[in-house]
Automatic annotation (TrEMBL):
This is RasGEF domain family member 1B. One of its GO terms (molecular function) is guanyl-nucleotide exchange factor activity. It comes from Bos mutus grunniens. It holds the Pfam family RasGEF. It comes from the Eukaryota. GO terms for cellular component: plasma membrane. Keywords: Guanine-nucleotide releasing factor. Residues 292-540 form the Ras-GEF domain. Residues 121-248 form the N-terminal Ras-GEF domain. The lineage of its organism: Eukaryota, Metazoa, Chordata, Craniata, Vertebrata. InterPro entries: Ras-like_GEF, Ras-like_Gua-exchang_fac_N, Ras_G-nucl-exch_fac_CS, Ras_GEF_dom_sf, RASGEF_cat_dom, RASGEF_cat_dom_sf. GO terms for biological process: Ras protein signal transduction.
Length: 560
């Protein structure tokens, strides 16, 4: 993981002739140190801190509407009928969870808080002890935490403790404080609290399902769910079964996806190795497989959305987890660094960049190379119009790699006006100002979309990771008094929640298995092989290039 982060964070934007990965300077954030009728396109949318540690006036729990989000495993609300006068706590969609400042300003309207150790400013939670924050997560008869708090705390808590440790504490508070283990407890009280606990577990399993790959998590979940379902209400038992079955389906789908990734990785071969055993004349290029650049952009969007969908929100935090200074447990906290889907997505970006460079360097004739460059310019332009910025940047990156950019005779035959426009849109100056403006336009279009196509927003992923990295590095997780710096985590949750909204979009384009298979499995050149192909196409221009050409011919082809 450290090697992956070093690659991701230590690279620079390719002006002509660099590697596929990029570098950025972060925006200033809350609590951060400042650091340095045609087809629709996104062009057409463009004071005093108050201590509340003595007592709590409990926040009254009131049901609301589900708004536009539908629970992943249920077609209807969790309970089929109200419990007494109250129904299950309903929650808003991710896009409505945070306002522009980074957190929901209507969360905490009570003047006092009995949990102790929680500090507010203007009715917004800024910090608190870890124990107090955990207690604030657990519902009681008259209180249910807002979804913004649930998401933010479940996301950030893993910086301080393992998810299974948090689950154990939550179970203990639910069982002991709500007297679920007492056979003589008030059945009416259990009837009121049980649906809220079940809702909390549902929020957790739906939003952070990968936490439950840990057997300790699943064991605690089933134990607490069994206590809820052991009562007289048949509905509870039915909904507990639905929740667990949905979770198991998600985990099974994840395992299947990881098996497919592993299979693709194990069968990948260097293009040069293939060429040694297969004559170049029968090598199919991308235009042979898909002559229409618009179709290729759509198939790239399929791959992007599928891979985005399998990235858990916790992976953004786990990528940068470090030892909590107040944690005396010397055990390997590195176990929390489970980021394989995030890493696989970044690897896909690099593969696409190398695929573009390979396809351009492969043709022997100059006019064929020029045609390939113009083809990928059209693909990149359509990716931009779709809102697929990750594929767009990967294509630009591939065309800016040194083996491609040095082909001056080839580029002289290319009409580069459209490419210049795309490069301008993705210009890294002013912290990618042009790209961020285009991204906001795509996000705004998504909010008011009338079709599935208009909902697509696929961010330039490496830059998103770096924004989160700089946010995490820019201010401490804990304040000098030992409290958790929750203001930082509101902003972190805001950024990740935007991603959660974007990754849930279903791709509206028809799948083409032949094209997808080619994109995912066709061998690509290594960096050395790219340089060799480039020199073979257009000879070395200086002594340095000549020496490298001779060295590559000797090492890769066995020629002098």
């Amino acid at each position: 993981m450290a090697k992956f982060l070093a690659k991701l964070l230590g690279c620079t934007l390719p002006s002509k002739g660099a590697s596929p990965m990029f570098e950025s300077t972060s925006h200033s954030r809350v609590g951060l140190k400042a650091s340095t009728k045609q087809k629709t396109t996104i062009f057409s949318t463009l004071a005093n801190e108050k201590s509340l540690s003595d007592c709590k006036k409990e926040q009254q729990w009131k049901p609301s509407m589900y708004s536009s989000i539908t629970p992943i495993c249920f077609a209807s609300p969790l309970l089929e009928k109200p419990v007494g006068k109250e129904s299950m706590p309903q929650t808003p969609p991710f896009s409505a969870m945070f306002d522009s400042s980074g957190y929901n300003r209507n969360l905490y309207q009570s003047a006092e808080d009995s949990c102790g150790g929680l500090y507010y400013h203007d009715n917004n939670l800024l910090s608190g002890s870890l124990e107090a924050l955990i207690q604030h997560l657990v519902p009681n008869v008259d209180y249910y935490p807002d979804r913004t708090y649930i998401f933010t705390f479940l996301l950030s808590s893993r910086l301080f403790m393992h998810p299974y440790e948090l689950m154990a504490k939550v179970c203990h508070l639910c069982v002991e404080h709500q007297r679920l283990s007492d056979p003589n407890s008030d059945k009416n009280q259990i009837r009121k609290i049980a649906p809220k606990i079940l809702q909390l577990l549902t929020e957790w399993t739906e939003t952070f399902p990968y936490d439950f790959r840990d057997e300790r998590m699943m064991r605690n979940l089933k134990d607490l769910a069994h206590r809820i379902a052991s009562g007289e209400e048949q509905t509870y038992r039915k909904n507990v079964q639905q929740m667990i079955q949905c979770l198991i389906r998600k985990l099974a789908a994840l395992s299947q996806y990881e098996e497919v990734l592993a299979k693709i990785s194990s069968t990948s071969t260097d293009r040069l190795t293939v060429l040694k055993t297969k004559p170049q004349s029968i090598q199919r290029d991308i235009i042979t497989v898909c002559s229409d650049p618009y179709t290729l952009a759509q198939q790239l969007t399929h791959i992007e959305l599928e891979r985005l969908n399998y990235i858990g929100p916790e992976e953004f935090v786990q990528a940068f987890v470090q030892k909590d200074p107040l944690d005396n447990d010397k055990s390997c906290y590195s176990e929390r660094k489970k980021t394989r889907n995030l890493e696989a997505y970044v690897e896909w970006f690099n593969r696409l960049s190398y695929l573009v460079a390979t396809e351009i360097c492969m043709p022997v004739k100059k006019k064929h190379r020029a045609r390939m460059i113009e083809y990928f310019i059209d693909v990149a332009r359509e990716c931009f119009n779709i809102g697929n910025f990750n594929s767009l940047m990967a294509i630009i990156s591939g065309m800016n790699m040194s083996p491609v950019s040095r082909l001056k005779k080839t580029w002289a035959k290319v009409k580069t006006a459209k490419f210049d426009v795309l490069e301008h849109q993705m210009d890294p100056s002013s912290n990618f100002y042009n790209y961020r403006t285009a991204l906001r336009g795509a996000a705004q279009r998504s909010l008011t979309a009338h079709s599935s196509r208009e909902k697509i927003v696929i961010p330039f992923f490496s830059l998103l990771i770096k924004d989160i990295y700089f946010l995490n590095e820019g201010c401490a997780n804990r304040l000098p008094n030992g409290h958790v710096n929750f203001e930082k985590f509101w902003e972190l949750a805001k950024q990740v929640s935007e991603f959660m909204t974007w990754k849930q979009v279903e791709c509206p384009f028809e799948r083409d298995r032949k094209i997808l298979q080619h994109l995912l499995t066709v061998p690509v050149f290594s960096e050395d092989a790219l340089y060799l192909a480039s020199y073979e196409s257009e000879g070395p221009e200086n002594h340095i290039e000549k020496d490298r050409w001779k060295s590559l011919r000797s090492s890769l082809l066995g020629r002098v």
